[in-house]
Design brief:
By secondary structure, the protein is mainly alpha-helical. It has a single domain, classed as dinb family like domain (Four Helix Bundle (Hemerythrin (Met), subunit A)), CATH 1.20.120.450. It contains six helices and two strands; from the N terminus they run αααααββα. α2 packs parallel to α6.
């Protein structure tokens, strides 16, 4: 990735600054793919039963966190595709708690969630490889905030890193 691929302030809502700052300087394609193995290394030793535990009452289980990561990747990838193609309509936000509650993640075998994450990541990186370079600088509006295509891909990598840290520290 070249310097033109790194998003600048103003290309994303301030909330996402922590995600983007956490991964700047890394090869984004490699990071997005390496996170597949990081997720597997975290979850596989835990297994199904331990992955259905939360670290505190009212918190998501580890499987629900993984489901949330997958949902967020899909939402951000959809936004990236829309804006890369020139979509001008404002895209809605999403209620992460509602999505997790309706995911029934704890009823899904862990192996299926891990496969889902892996396949969605490969599809995301494949899409990135097919976008014309100028598409990464395009903007759209999602959840009331302007965001660039390149920022969306950085947000996804930083978001996953954020949750991996929480999983390792609290679960």
């Amino acid at each position: 990735m070249n310097e033109n691929f790194i998003p600048k302030q103003g290309e994303y809502a301030p909330y996402y600054e922590k995600y983007i700052e956490s991964i700047i300087g890394q090869d984004l394609h490699k990071l997005l793919l390496n996170q597949i193995e990081e997720i597997r290394r975290y979850f596989e030793p835990k297994g199904n039963e331990k992955s259905e535990l939360a670290y505190a009452p009212g918190k998501w289980t580890a499987k629900e966190v993984l489901s949330h990561i997958i949902d967020t990747d899909r939402m951000m990838t959809f936004r990236a595709m829309c804006f890369a193609r020139g979509e001008m309509a404002t895209l809605p936000g999403f209620d992460q708690d509602l999505y997790v509650a309706n995911s029934a993640a704890n009823k899904v075998p862990l192996v299926n969630l891990l496969e889902d994450f892996e396949m969605s990541r490969y599809a995301m990186v494949s899409m990135m490889k097919t976008l014309p370079e100028e598409a990464f600088a395009r903007f759209g509006n999602a959840n009331g905030h302007n965001v660039s295509v390149r920022a969306l891909f950085h947000i996804m990598a930083g978001h996953t890193l954020h949750h991996l840290i929480i999983l390792r520290e609290r679960y």
